[in-house]
């Protein structure tokens, strides 16, 4: 495609350079090593050392890529992220809908439910977790309100409180998982174990992503350079994670 | 030439060209797989391999790479990237870095698909990956899962990017009623991608979880159910047909309107009835892939009705094309030949699909070569022809140069003839009882002659495609300079210089009150 430059003189639109960014390239190849190659080495070929080696290549690439990207985007600014997050949430919601659809389908055709081997799930803990996650939705909303009013240090405080609440939620979730593992209820037990751990795990991974977005917002927020658009986008994702939890808790714990 | 400005580019046109190069490479690989299968089937019994699993690997690579590595990336990657910002008068997409991420994730997906040939245990699960076979095979199902997941993630972030771009970045005065049909079509395709790709991602993740981590989604002895997979898989993969169909018919609309020098017939009905109808109905027809798997009758009959219903919006889009041709002043350059070829192939493919939608006829036709012939006509070759039509059509804009018209037409006629030899014969022996996916058809020796004819047709088809690709490469390197608007189109992308510079226009364009992309016949 060398002619592209050869033509510049021809039509006279002399441009200094074409925009570039190395980070998408770095992240993509990080993903190649971290996910398929490491997974295959570990599970398909039983070569744990090679798997760790690929993780050692992939994870630093991804971390470097994300940090570089955030710095670049932070200095150049990308608008329109709020609308884009809306579309992204549509796709995310479909992941949960298909998990729930599979769960409902298997549950409704099952001769008996719950299948053999299921243990009693805790009843109080999920309520506490719900309360924590719902209150974190309110705290981030209040933080955005403060940022909108121009109170940047107030935003940082309430953002930190939200992060702490999210971390508490994750901690309780991990505690509950280990408790169930000790009782012998795992993904392998039966189809309910499979569904229980995949749905709560999927939701938990979204909590982690939400916390990562908040951490990415924290640095510019501390230096007072956070844009309202980024704050609203992060908040929108968090509200989505919160709303999904209502479905998780009602369908998996209390049905 | 600065190679860094290509590898690390965030410009939508260069990202588009990267998509095109990758998808044509994928097309070549998947095409070679098809030729290997045809060579294998040219005699009864083993021909070029004695190993049936090898045949399954070719079958897997052909299907998965053609759909996920060639058609969807070429249509929603290359064409969307190259054309949409130019058609809506934007200087780039909304998120250029996200765009670069999606093209490199696409390359990672291609690399994974090609790794298949170097693995000791390549995946052999076809492109559908049905359990329980995929969870017990010795093949590497994880590679299949991750190929789908990575390509799927690339197309989701691409979809988010383009929907945001179309919503917020149109030039002043470019109202929704003045969008090109291609932009509307792609918008519909991306909405479908956003809704349905996550479902496929979930389904293929479940098979790898089952195979490698011991979960029980598809293990009936522990309460799982294999049909869950088929439902989730086809809940994506039928709409995937429309993800391919919508952009390809959009490309054909642009070409037909330009070369017939005519307004798009029934613009509003095409947009609201055709595209809107397809987007609304796409998610309610997946059960026609599962007619013979033991679905409940109420579901089968209901989805037979919706399947027949979806031919109405599709028909509206074909009527729009024919109406655009009517009383046009038509010229037959290479892009137009391919476009008319699509119309012909799509008509045959569409009409032969109607018997398959009817539950009673399907009992006879299911899992025969008739099905294979039908979906190759309607989706595989019609889609591929439109990709070739579109590349020829936007070739002068992309490179600033012209391809060779004689070799363009020669390539078209060879592919067109080869296509009809292969897939018409396929439908014919399918009706007579030739089952699909057979490595050795020694129970059906009467079809050996037909298989040899198809192998010959496949070679002709391959030569035709090869001529086209060589024509592009030679044209891009040393074709004559084409000028900014060689076809005399009214659409916005032809108003800038060829090839467009970074930022597309020296100053942002705005459109006149009485302009629309198809305003032929008035100055």
Structural notes for this entry:
- The complex is a heterodimer of chains A (255) and B (523).
- Chain A is mainly α.
- Chain A has two domains: 1-73; 80-253, Four Helix Bundle (Hemerythrin (Met), subunit A) (Up-down Bundle).
- Helix content of chain A is 80%, strand content 0%.
- Chain A is globular, with a radius of gyration of 23 Å.
- The termini of chain A are far apart.
- In chain A, 36% of the residues are buried.
- Chain B is mainly alpha-helical and 523 residues long.
- Chain B has a single domain, classed as Cytochrome c oxidase-like, subunit I domain (Cytochrome C Oxidase, Chain A, Up-down Bundle), CATH 1.20.210.
- Chain B is built from 16 helices and no strands.
- Chains A and B meet through helix 1, helix 2, helix 3, helix 4 and helix 7 of A and helix 1, helix 4, helix 6, helix 7 and helix 8 of B.
The rounded distance between the terminal residues' Cα atoms of chain B is 40 Å
Percent in strands of chain A: under 5%
Total beta strand runs of chain A: 0
Main sheet specs of chain A: none
Quick tags:
heterodimer, A: 255 residues, mainly alpha, Four Helix Bundle (Hemerythrin (Met), subunit A), 8 helices, disordered N terminus, B: 523 residues, Cytochrome C Oxidase, Chain A, globular
């Amino acid at each position: 495609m060398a002619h592209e430059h050869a033509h510049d003189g021809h039509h006279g639109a002399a441009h200094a350079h074409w925009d570039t960014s190395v980070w998408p390239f770095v992240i993509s190849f990080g993903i190649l090593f971290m996910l398929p190659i490491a997974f295959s080495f570990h599970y398909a070929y039983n070569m744990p050392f090679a798997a760790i080696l690929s993780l050692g290549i992939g994870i630093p690439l991804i971390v470097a890529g994300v940090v570089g990207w955030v710095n670049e985007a932070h200095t150049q600014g990308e608008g329109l992220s709020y609308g884009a997050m809306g579309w992204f949430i549509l796709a995310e919601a479909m992941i949960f809908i298909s998990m729930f659809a599979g769960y409902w389908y298997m549950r409704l055709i099952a001769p008996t439910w719950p299948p053999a081997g299921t243990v009693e799930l805790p009843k109080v803990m999920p309520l506490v977790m719900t309360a924590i996650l719902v209150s974190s939705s309110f705290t981030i909303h209040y933080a955005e309100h403060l940022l909108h009013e121009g109170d940047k240090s107030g935003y940082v405080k309430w953002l930190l409180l939200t992060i702490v609440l999210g971390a508490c939620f994750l901690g309780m979730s991990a505690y509950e998982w280990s408790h169930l593992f000790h009782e012998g209820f795992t993904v392998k037990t039966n189809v309910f174990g499979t569904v229980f751990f995949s749905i709560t795990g999927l939701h938990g991974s979204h909590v982690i992503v939400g916390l990562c977005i908040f951490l990415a917002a924290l640095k510019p927020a501390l230096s007072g350079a956070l844009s309202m658009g980024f704050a609203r986008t992060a908040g929108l994702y968090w509200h989505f994670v919160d709303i999904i939890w209502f479905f998780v808790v009602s369908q998996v714990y209390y049905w | 030439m600065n190679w860094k400005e290509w590898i690390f580019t965030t410009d939508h046109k260069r990202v588009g060209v990267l998509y095109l190069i990758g998808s044509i490479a994928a097309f070549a690989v998947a095409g070679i797989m098809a030729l290997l299968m045809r060579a294998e089937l040219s005699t009864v019994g083993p021909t070029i391999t004695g190993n049936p699993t090898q045949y399954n690997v070719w079958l897997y690579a052909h299907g998965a790479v053609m759909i996920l590595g060639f058609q969807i990336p070429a249509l929603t990657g290359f064409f969307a990237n190259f054309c949409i910002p130019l058609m809506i008068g934007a200087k780039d997409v909304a998120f250029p870095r996200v765009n670069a991420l999606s093209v490199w994730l696409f390359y990672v997906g291609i690399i994974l698909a090609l790794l298949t040939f170097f693995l000791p245990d390549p995946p052999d699960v076809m492109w559908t990956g049905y359990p329980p076979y995929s969870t017990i095979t010795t093949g590497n199902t994880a590679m299949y899962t991750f190929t789908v997941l990575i390509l799927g993630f690339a197309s989701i972030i691409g979809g988010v990017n383009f929907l945001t771009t179309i919503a917020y970045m149109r030039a002043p005065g470019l109202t929704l009623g003045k969008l090109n049909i291609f932009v509307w079509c792609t918008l519909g395709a991306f909405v479908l991608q956003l809704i349905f790709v996550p479902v496929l991602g979930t389904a293929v993740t479940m098979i790898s979880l089952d195979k490698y981590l011991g979960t029980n989604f598809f293990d009936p002895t522990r309460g799982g159910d294999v049909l869950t997979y088929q439902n989730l898989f086809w809940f994506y993969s039928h709409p995937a047909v429309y993800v391919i169909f919508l952009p390809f018919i959009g490309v054909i609309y642009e070409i037909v309107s330009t070369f017939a020098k005519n307004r798009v017939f029934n613009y509003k009905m095409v947009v609201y009835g055709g595209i809107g109808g397809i987007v609304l109905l796409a998610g309610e027809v997946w059960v026609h892939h599962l007619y013979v798997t033991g679905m409940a009758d109420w579901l089968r009959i209901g989805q037979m009705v919706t399947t027949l219903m979806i031919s109405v919006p599709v028909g509206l889009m074909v009527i729009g094309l024919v109406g655009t041709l009517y009383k046009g002043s038509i010229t037959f350059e290479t892009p137009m030949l391919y476009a008319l070829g699509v119309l012909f192939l799509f008509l045959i493919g569409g009409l032969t699909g109607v018997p398959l939608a009817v539950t009673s006829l399907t009992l006879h036709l299911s899992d025969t070569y008739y099905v294979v012939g039908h979906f190759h006509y309607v989706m595989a070759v019609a889609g591929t022809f439109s990709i070739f039509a579109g590349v020829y059509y936007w070739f002068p804009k992309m490179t600033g140069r012209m391809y060779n018209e004689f070799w363009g037409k020669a390539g078209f006629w060879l592919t067109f003839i080869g296509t009809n030899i292969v897939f018409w014969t396929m439908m014919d022996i399918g009706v007579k009882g030739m089952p699909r996916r057979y490595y050795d058809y020694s129970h059906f020796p009467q079809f050996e002659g037909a298989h040899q004819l198809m192998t010959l047709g496949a070679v002709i088809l391959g030569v035709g495609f090869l001529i086209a690709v060589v024509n592009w490469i030679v044209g891009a390197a040393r074709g004559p300079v084409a000028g900014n608007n060689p076809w005399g189109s009214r659409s916005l992308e032809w108003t800038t210089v060829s090839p467009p510079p970074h930022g597309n226009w020296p100053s942002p364009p705005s459109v006149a009150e009485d302009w629309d992309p198809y305003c032929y016949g008035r100055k």
